[in-house]
Design goal:
single chain; Rossmann fold; Ribosomal Protein S5, domain 2; 7-stranded mixed beta sheet; 18 strands; binds thymidine-5'-diphosphate; binds magnesium ion
């Protein structure tokens, strides 16, 4: 006899599950659009009724501003509410008038009592869309811990998710990203909600990026680009043009990387500076990219191509405050470093992309055609790329030149850096 724990013994009244086939006649769900296109696209083409969205980001980055704008737009078509647990009515009203949305029918409340929010969502006049700003200020009196603690944040979110699924309202939770500690950040809620969006950007820069890192109803890694202005967040319609607008021509260390963010190509400027160091361990400073990958690119350049960065400080910056995570930026970084080291400007009409392997080979990356098309659209004359694969149908015309390289060492000839690389070193150096 197998030992069945008592709790698992089959009860006569328990019915087995009713299964159905994969093909059904259920209508595709309608999506609600805010008309703020950058926001709608990041959500996968609009909001899905009954879904819960978490919007995380550093304090002061613009989450409340964005969601007030979104809620105000949506309120023109359906009942919407904005509950602030952080700011008073007067403060939110002041912001609304600054954003020019004070005449929209958005309903506003200042509260931290989760029970009343749940009661609102369960009532007859429940809003279709509600923003809870922020989840860290909310308080459920049946939970014996203070607002902002892991238990409290989790229980409040759980309640809101339950009621959203039941009533079909869309609930947006705002969560501040916090340093590790007793206070709970948005991370602990990521697995519970349907969609996780992060609002990023450098405080000193005007650009803000809304990025989907999880979406049960759409693609992830989709980004929306906004600009923070005196009148709130404005959509940036042509992000590539915006990110390369401030570029100086003919300076060394600057390279335009042809990236992909979500489903969209995005051109961004990578800047590098290589300067003599007075430190025993020279500095390696990166803003907007992964420092581990920078070390790898430097190591491959040194070990496989024979250049030396010894005794030099290295700075790498992604202009505009953007964060890039694609390995396709490797070749762009290598090009920027070599250009800075040699003091030779990289051809200003060329974009670059490609992944670098540890033996110095250049690997193909995804969506080459989309990257090239974006560059051509913005007036570039060519691209430094990985080798073409048979399936890639790529533009290579007299007005747009492809320069494909197989190994990193070929980049020297391309930029005209006439260093006689030491004999190729294999293994350790
Ligand atoms: P906020 O939305 O309060 O940030 P969060 O909710 O993420 O903490 O945004 C705060 C910053 O945005 C604040 O420093 C001022 C700036 N801001 C503008 O530059 N223009 C505007 O129109 C508004 C409303 C805010
Ligand atoms: Mg706020």
């Amino acid at each position: 006899m197998s030992q069945i724990p008592k709790g698992l013994k089959r009860d006569k009244s328990t019915k087995p599950l009713d299964f159905v086939g994969l093909k059904g006649s259920s209508e595709p769900t309608e999506r609600w659009k805010s008309q703020i296109q950058e926001f709608d696209r990041v959500c996968g083409g609009g909001l899905v009724p009954g879904s819960v969205i978490l919007v995380g980001g550093d304090p002061g980055i613009g989450k409340s501003t964005l969601l007030l704008q979104v809620a105000a737009q949506l309120s023109k078509g359906r009942p919407c509410a904005y509950v602030s647990g952080e700011e008073g009515i007067a403060q939110v009203r002041m912001r609304a008038s600054r954003l020019g949305v004070e005449t929209t029918p958005l309903q506003l409340s200042s509260s931290t009592d989760l029970r009343s929010i749940i009661a609102t969502l369960e009532s007859k006049e429940a809003p279709d869309f509600i923003v809870v700003d922020s989840i860290q200020t909310m308080y459920l009196d049946s939970v014996d811990s203070s607002p902002g603690t892991v238990t409290q944040v989790r229980c409040c979110a759980q309640e809101l998710i339950r009621v959203a699924k039941k009533t079909g309202s869309v609930v947006v939770l705002v969560g501040h990203v916090t340093k590790e500690g007793a206070i709970a950040g948005p991370r602990i809620l990521e697995h519970m909600v349907d969609t996780v969006l992060y609002f990023e950007g450098e405080r000193g820069h005007q650009f803000r990026i809304l990025r989907s890192v999880k979406n049960r109803f759409g693609p992830t890694d989709e980004i929306g680009v906004f600009e923070m202005t005196q009148l709130g967040l404005q959509e940036v319609e042509n992000p590539s043009a915006a990110f390369i607008a401030d570029r100086h021509d003919d300076v060394s260390g600057s390279v335009i990387f042809g990236g992909i963010e979500g489903t969209r190509p995005l051109l961004v400027e990578l800047q590098s500076l290589v300067a003599p160091s007075s430190l025993a361990t020279p500095r390696r400073t990166v803003i907007g990219w992964d420092s581990g990958r920078l070390s790898m690119v430097i190591a491959v350049l040194e070990a496989r191509c024979g250049v030396s960065f010894a005794g030099k400080d290295i700075y790498l910056n992604v202009a505009g405050g953007l964060k890039i995570s694609e390995p396709a930026a490797d070749l762009g970084v290598a090009a920027a470093l070599l250009s800075a080291l040699s003091n030779i400007p990289f051809p200003k009409d060329f974009i670059v992309f490609g992944e670098i392997g540890l033996v110095g080979e250049i690997r193909p990356v995804s969506q080459m055609a989309a990257r090239l098309k974006e560059a051509e659209k913005l007036g570039f004359k060519g691209a430094l790329t990985p080798p073409k694969r048979a399936k890639d149908a790529l533009v290579d015309s007299s007005s747009f030149k492809l320069h494909s390289i197989k190994t990193l060492i070929e980049i020297f000839e391309f930029i005209g850096y006439d260093v006689k690389p030491k004999e190729m070193v294999h293994g350790t150096y």
